[in-house]
């Protein structure tokens, strides 16, 4: 068995013999591991990626028990790509601070952090208390430096501005109209889109010149509130890239997602650069994928 399989098997065996809900039992198993009262039987030390993947398999199993569309974990195919881009956009020297305002299970955040060679800290926000306990214990096992906030991330966040925001945005209406009024993207009538408000909130907490990377619905710029979003982005952000993910990753056209990369304006950015519009090839096609990543690297080198 690989280390990843052994880690999954350790958590799964624990969860099967527990009376708690599977996800709760995953948290308990991870806590046992942390305290050393029982540990996976590994013959060689596991890498951070092996640990993340082993725990991820268990979380996926637990998620099937209590699946909610907006709680879905960000899949590795998307996380690895975002991590690749994120690691190219940050400076190699010095520490990078991240914010994931919708951290969920932490899978996306830890995929990105694992790709950043350790010189990274993060704030993580999540409204669901179980998911915060889960992602917090995983952060400890992965020895990642993460500060957690259990709250509605669209309420005031008491954190320092960060170098980069990453978020797989929850899509849908934001029910709290009163709080929505604190945002420019609150429409004059009806509910705001949560995913729009998250973009505005993320920019509120990004340093000047910093980046915000989002997993967005591919039809973001086609909704009935799109013109308001366009106007907002024109004044408050620089759109650096829109990268369409392969449709084969999604159940249907309405579920298709893209990656949106924004930069917060700063005095140092004088000329507005061209927007990179790209399409990720079939991820199983290794040659096409290598070429695509090379194009992304060249773009990032010019842009960062
Ligand atoms: N990247 C995450 C992962 O890998 O597990 C998945 C993110 S999931 C698409 C969106 C998350 O946003 C869900 O976990 C949901 O509970 C959370 N969320 C939704 N509305 C929120 C809010 N107002 N404040 C904080 N978190 C919120």
From TrEMBL:
A Gene Ontology molecular function term of the record: DNA binding
Domain of life: Bacteria
InterPro entries registered for this protein in UniProt: DNA_methylase_A-5, DNA_Protect_Modify, S-AdoMet-dep_Ade-MeTrfase_prd, SAM-dependent_MTases_sf
Pfam families (UniProt xref): N6_Mtase (PF02384)
Presence of keyword Transferase: yes
Domain DNA methylase adenine-specific: 74-286
Gene Ontology biological process terms, A to Z: methylation
Keywords on record: Methyltransferase, Transferase
Name this polypeptide is given: Type I restriction-modification system methyltransferase subunit
